[in-house]
Specification:
By secondary structure, this protein is an all-beta fold. Helices cover about 0% and strands about 50% of the residues. The chain contains no helices and eleven strands. Strand 5 (about 45-50) and strand 6 (about 55) form a beta hairpin.
Amino acid sequence: QVQLVESGGGLVQAGGSLRLSCVASGRRYAMGWFRQAPGKEREFVAAISWSGGSTNYADSVKGRFTISRDNAKNTVYLRKNSLKPEDTAVYYCAAKNSDLSPKYDYWGQGTQVTVSS
């Protein structure tokens, strides 16, 4: 059973920064971050390939968020700068078995990020 454990969420003021971490058990996966705000559907935030050589972002976070990975630690990070109140959400880490797959196979339990104005 694959386990994804997120950490690093919390309360931050607008304009501040946070770094989320996600540790995956087992082997290496292509990874992504998603978020779900109250009353809204879960949305894609960022993704990174198995090797770490390719990343992509939602337009709403481009230039502010950076996804990275440390394969030695099987950990993926999401660095979030210039946070806005609309970034408030539960952030989920996800993993998929192949870079080419459109579907994520495994999900973490989520970590709350609250941005105050």
